[in-house]
Write a structure and sequence with these properties.
The structure holds two protein chains of two kinds. By secondary structure, chain A is mainly alpha-helical. Chain A has five helices and three strands. Chain A has a three-stranded parallel sheet with strand order 1-2-3, sandwiched between helices. In chain A, helix 4 links the parallel strand 2 and strand 3. Chain B is α+β, with helices and mostly antiparallel strands. Chain B contains 15 helices and twelve strands. In chain B, the strands form three sheets. A five-stranded antiparallel sheet of chain B has the order 2-1-5-4-3. Chain B has a five-stranded mixed sheet with strand order 7-9-10-12-11. Classes of the chains: A mainly alpha, B alpha+beta.
Chain lengths: 118, 502
């Protein structure tokens, strides 16, 4: 879970844990990329607009690193172009803040089922 | 003046008649003395001739007449007596000569005194004229400058007002001036000020300097400034001499200017908020989003087969924190957007600067600006309007961010607070960027109204900053640091210093 806003990070963490997931929090894309265990991840949830590397730049970087972890975007302000770019880049979900717990749960369920199919 | 001017001609006219009369009397006396055998001292009557001539005030003529009368007396004596002169006749002649001599001497002395008196009178008149002229000058000056004079004799409280003072208080000239008369004209809210000044005078304070309002019977409100000082230092009280200035026009102009400045500050503030809208919206939506998410999480923790109360509590606590944070942001924005008069308060510079950086942090991040704050602790305190000070800071920071938007290198915004080295007793705030800098040509006009280097700029930002800083007794200027970019600095008088002064 990557978001530059602490409140959003804490709230998301609680929601995801209540859904039964294990969560690691990062304040920026850079700190996430610097963190050790990039494998073994079920999903990356990221904000779109952040100081420094943006969500879309992160998505690009993950492609370059050949990390095919599903990416979910949660953002407050997004242009259609950004949304299209994210989904074209393989994003699983593109949600607008404030996000409904159910929407996140549904999205994560889709990811879980994708795992099970694999 | 009339009689004084026509006097010489009348005198000349009189002189001729008097001289003729004197000559006639002299002739008559001589004829009687010389030709009649009267055994009386007829020559004594020559004194009449001497007195008449003396009355014209001509010194030489008086002396000549006296000698003439002496000669005539002697000639008359010789003509009317042969060699057998009686002792009586000789005595009579001597008496006559003595009388003429004495009269002449006395007349001359009176003449001298009269001359002196006349000279003194003329001098007095000249001084009186000069006094009248200077009084006229003073009255004109008082009238033109709307300044009246008030003299107060203490402890009795007897007063003297100049014409202009009567006019300012709107009293008829025949009214007896007194402190009660002044109090009757004082604005009800300012009576304490007037009373205080009067009591200060009663307790022999050396200088009095107060400003207050008057409320005239027709409802007009006047602003007056009264300055007085003790003119004498007698133990039994003394006299205060003071000037009462009608400063209504100045005051109204000042108030109008302050109002315009406040309006303009408000308009530019709202414009500035408009420019910050995206960042502000983000500041509010973030906690809102967090609240929604936390709410969802809390519900899920509670809806579990085995409800996790501790987790739910944490989520709810988080919701409360975020809701507070959102409303704080809104309160700050509301404060900025509100239209209000300047409300000076004692502020910690460092605290305000820190708060303001938080307010624009997102906007700065959007411009990829790295903020480096160097804030002094303990903070210098200033007496300033919080919103206006924030407005100045936001303006300078936003300008800095915009100046760096075309820069490819590091975009560093340095904000510092400290005690001013160049202006002791002042707090200094520095906002420095690593942008394109200010050309010498622009530096001169930087703070002028309607001067802008931005395509869509109105050119009011820095002009308003200057108005705000100067209204708080400070100054603002720009420097071009050697390392490039621009450095905007301003100083505000420190609060402690002002307390010391009072």
């Amino acid at each position: 879970m990557i978001d530059d806003d602490e409140s959003v990070r804490v709230a998301s963490s609680s929601l995801l844990r209540s859904l039964g997931w294990e969560v690691s929090l990062y304040a920026s894309a850079e700190t996430f990329l610097d963190a050790d265990p990039l494998d073994g991840l079920a999903c990356i949830i990221t904000d779109l607009n952040m100081p420094g590397m943006s969500g879309l730049q992160l998505q690009q970087r993950l492609h370059e690193l050949n990390l095919n972890v599903p990416v979910m975007f949660i953002t407050a302000f997004a242009s259609d172009a950004a949304r299209r770019q994210a989904l074209d880049g393989g994003a699983v979900c593109f949600l607008s803040k404030p996000v409904d717990g159910t929407a996140v749960a549904d999205c994560l369920e889709r990811i879980r089922q994708g795992f099970l199919k694999d | 003046m009339e009689t004084f001017q026509s006097a010489p001609r009348a005198v000349r006219h009189d002189t001729r008649i008097v001289s003729m009369l004197a000559a006639a009397i002299a002739l008559a006396v001589f004829l009687i003395d010389a030709l009649t055998p009267l055994d009386i001292a007829i020559a004594v009557l020559y004194v009449v001739v001497v007195l008449l001539i003396a009355s014209t005030g001509n010194r030489t003529a008086t002396v000549a007449t006296a000698w003439g009368c002496v000669i005539l007396t002697l000639v008359g004596f010789i003509l009317s007596h042969d060699e057998n002169v009686s002792g009586g006749a000789l005595a009579r002649c001597a008496v006559s000569l003595l009388a003429i001599g004495t009269t002449a001497v006395l007349s001359l002395r009176i003449q001298a005194t009269t001359m002196q008196r006349k000279r003194m009178e003329a001098e007095l008149q000249r001084q009186r004229d000069a006094l009248k002229r200077s009084e006229a000058f003073l009255l004109d000056a008082q009238r033109l400058s709307l300044t009246g004079s008030i003299a107060t004799r203490l402890p009795a409280g007897t007063m003297w007002w100049s014409d202009e003072a009567y006019r300012i208080f709107d009293y008829p000239r025949d009214m007896t001036p007194s402190i009660d008369a002044i109090l009757a004209r004082s604005h009800p809210d300012d009576i304490a000020i007037v009373r205080g000044a009067h009591e200060a005078a009663l307790s022999s304070v050396r200088d009095i300097d107060v400003e207050h309002r008057l409320l005239l019977p027709d409802g007009t409100v006047k602003h007056v400034h009264y300055v007085a000082h003790r003119a004498s230092s007698e133990n039994d009280g003394g006299e205060y001499v003071g000037a009462l200035m009608d400063v209504t026009e100045t005051k109204l102009a000042q108030e109008a200017l302050a109002r315009s400045t406040a309006e303009l500050a408000h308009v530019t503030r709202v414009t500035m908020l408009g420019e910050l809208a995206a960042s502000i919206a983000h500041e509010v939506t973030q906690p809102m989003a967090a609240i929604v998410t936390s709410g969802g999480a809390a519900l899920r923790w509670l809806n579990r087969a085995q409800p996790d109360i501790a987790e739910a509590q944490q989520s709810i606590a988080q919701m409360v924190r975020d809701a507070k944070r959102a409303s704080e942001v809104i309160a700050r924005i509301r404060a900025m957007a509100r239209k209000r008069d300047s409300q000076p308060a004692t502020l910690e510079v460092t605290e305000i600067v820190g708060e303001t950086i938080e307010l624009v942090r997102r906007e700065l991040a959007r411009h990829r600006v790295d903020v480096r704050a160097d804030l002094a602790t303990p903070s210098p305190t200033v007496r300033c309007d919080r919103v206006q000070l924030q407005q100045v800071l936001i303006n300078l920071m936003m300008n800095a961010a915009q100046a760096m938007s075309a820069v490819n290198g590091p975009r560093v915004l340095r904000v510092a607070t400290r005690e001013s080295d160049s202006d002791p007793g002042y707090a200094q705030i520095v906002v420095q960027d690593s942008g394109t800098g200010i050309s010498d040509e622009n530096a001169r006009r930087l703070f002028d109204a309607f001067f802008t280097t931005k395509a869509e700029g109105m050119g009011m930002g820095l002009s308003i900053c200057r108005s705000i800083i100067e209204a708080h007794g400070g100054r603002i200027w720009a420097e071009s640091p050697d390392e490039g970019g621009a450095r905007l600095l301003f100083v505000l008088p420190e609060n402690e210093r002002r307390d010391d002064e009072q």
